[in-house]
């Protein structure tokens, strides 16, 4: 698990979740990145951004109503 | 509709509005309905202006005494309640707060100061452009510059910190305030007149000027509810549009703003409301420098707060207590803007407009440089 980078964007205002995810994607280039999010808006923004730059997006609903977004390339 | 068909229809609505067509559709609806509201009575090129309308509400509540801009605008009430309805239907009503509310209050105030020096929020800047008011070009350039400055702060670690889940009751406070405003609009209580015969309030409605110009209450309210519903789902944001393009190279929201401008332009042409030029534009002045400067401040303040004034209303409707504090800051700030002679008038900038914009820029820059997330 240690090679998975985690971006915790919970509770942050726009555009910080998408911005932090984008920075992580650009830095990693490829691999697996986990983004923690708690708003549907941020979920849509991060998913759109990742898909547009060729990453595979899977979303896992968490028990507390937040999301764990796994990005793979 | 059968329950199943209704469920499928709502699911379709949700998928459509969260798709790339969502902001475009919302922009088209606003672009068509705003000039229609003007035709039905709203002030020219002011079918919807979140800042102007917050200012009118501030006046109606007696927070300022500019007699020509006092009215409780049903569009604002509709924006919040329409968003609330969408959030409840689609399970996005998530009360939350705790992300530097006091700073957001200040940002709301300074955003309004800047916007009232220009005479319009980003929504009205685009609507003024679509009505042929070329002064809006300087306002929009200022808005882009202000958003650009905000992006520099975002890139260098600016953050108002994280919000946290809050009790359900907190999310209902702003909708309750809006229902109260609606009641005050309908009842319009009057406690009599003073010795000179002027109404003493507590609610003031303009008898002349822009505040006296309004579409029928029910139509304004329904348009507000409809736009609030659409915008909650589509995340329509007139500042995020430019910000996301500059910061993330993402044109998702920008297409919504372009759709708004195009639809408003065509609707204005059809309704005979397109009057190109700089001089004698409705509720506007021709001071290019401060049309630009005012919107630099507004653009910066909106960017630091995470979205345009409309977006703050929609977020408040879905339970965001911090966005609600920003909205309260806008209304209180609008009161100050007139009492302290900050807001411009059609004859030009006021005595303390320019200096307040400069003070506001200094304060927003300090906020941009100092606000950071504090790790627990």
From TrEMBL, chain A:
PANTHER family per UniProt: SULFUR CARRIER PROTEIN YEDF-RELATED
Family the UniProt entry places it in: Belongs to the sulfur carrier protein TusA family.
UniProt-listed InterPro entries: TusA-like (IPR001455), TusA-like_sf (IPR036868)
Name under which the protein is recorded: UPF0033 domain-containing protein
Organism: Candidatus Hakubella thermalkaliphila
Family annotation (SUPFAM superfamilies): SirA-like
A Pfam family: TusA
Organism taxonomic ancestry: Bacteria, Bacillati, Actinomycetota, Actinomycetota incertae sedis, Candidatus Hakubellales
Domain UPF0033, first and last residues per copy: 7-31
From TrEMBL, chain B:
Transmembrane segments annotated in the record for this chain: 21-38, 71-90, 102-125, 137-158, 170-191, 211-231, 252-272, 292-311, 323-343, 349-371
Keyword Membrane: yes
Keyword S-adenosyl-L-methionine: no
One Pfam family this sequence matches: Sulf_transp
Annotated keywords: Membrane, Transmembrane, Transmembrane helix
Protein origin, superkingdom: Bacteria
InterPro entries (alphabetical): Seleno_YedE, Sulf_transp_TsuA/YedE
NCBIfam families: seleno_YedE
Protein name according to UniProt: Sulphur transport domain-containing protein
